[in-house]
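User: We ran a pulldown and think these components assemble together. Before we commit to crystallization trials, I'd like a predicted model of the whole complex to look at. Sequences follow.
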Amino acid sequence: MKDGTTPPESVFTTTLDKMVRWARAGSLWPLPFGTACCAIEFMSVVSSHYDLARFGAEVVRFSPRQSDMMIVAGTVVDKQAPILKLIYEQMCAPKWVISMGVCASSGGFYRAYHVMQGIDEIVPVDVYVPGCPPTPEGLIYSILKLQEKIERGEPSHWQIEAERETAQARKQQLVGV
Amino acid sequence: MAEFVAENLRRRFGDALERVSDEHGDLTVWVDRARVHEVLEHCKRDSELDFCFCMDVTAVDYLTLGGTPRFAVVYHLYSLKTGKRVRVKTGVPEDDPVVQTAVDVWKSTDWFEREVYDMFGIRFEGHPNMKRILCHRDFQGHPLRKDYPADLRWKLLRPDDLLDEISSDEMKRIRARSSYPISE
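Assistant: Here's a predicted model for the assembly, 361 residues in total across the polymer chains.
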């Protein structure tokens, strides 16, 4: 305080759940799965001009063990599908996936024999970003959207799938008994 | 432009050359399939021609153009000494899609020929590692054939072996060290 007296104790009440959600939303650690030109656009998002650090998602890690938000930036071919799946499964939960650009979202203009028609064939996606490639603002907007979802407490698609699998396993157990 | 190349080949292989054309300075030589290896070897070893650089091996499917035989394998050669290029083509029938390998002439044709096999299903006899190079293990058919449906996909469930250039002993050691399963 200005007059040198000790301040009164500052207290605010909240729920632990809300607090955790706030912290999670502001400390996303991205894992770039960059396979094409979208990854170049991703680089500009994390470098000084667009500076993703302003939005609390700048700690880019190249190890799935240390990250919780995968950004799939680029075309994913069928030969790469099991690799993408493996890396996704190695990530720490709770985890989120952003599908950046039309190739990752729907195959884009590669309607062909070798390209996955959207990565949601094998991994659950939380936010899709349109564009070929999307503008840096587009990707930043998608991260803000994801943060909103996390703060609202919407379950990630990973969670939805995990719960469905648990329910199914339980059902099978009951039927087995 | 490339008259001396055509002359040289005519002199040496008169009867084996099916067709010689020189469109806009691009020399193309059609060769009988049985003698294509001989022609390629000559192109490289002959001191006058000296085609030291095989730039590409590819193939053409003439299905929709109604050609016989159905396929053609195409070799693009370049000479660093004379600065000349030549395109050697050979027809390959659908019922016996086999051509003798050129790996013993240019080592660089190893992966080119694997690509041609992958995309067109044309096999190269004597190739040291005749298997797919771009498409994955569970892929069926050859996608650049004109009768292949352009958007027909084949799913791969386990990671494909990306280390198939390595000898089997070395592969065994890598597999033993790896913490996740590498396919056989």
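Residues 97 and 126 of chain A are 5 Å apart (CA to CA). That may be worth checking against your pulldown data before setting up trials.

User: Thanks, that helps.
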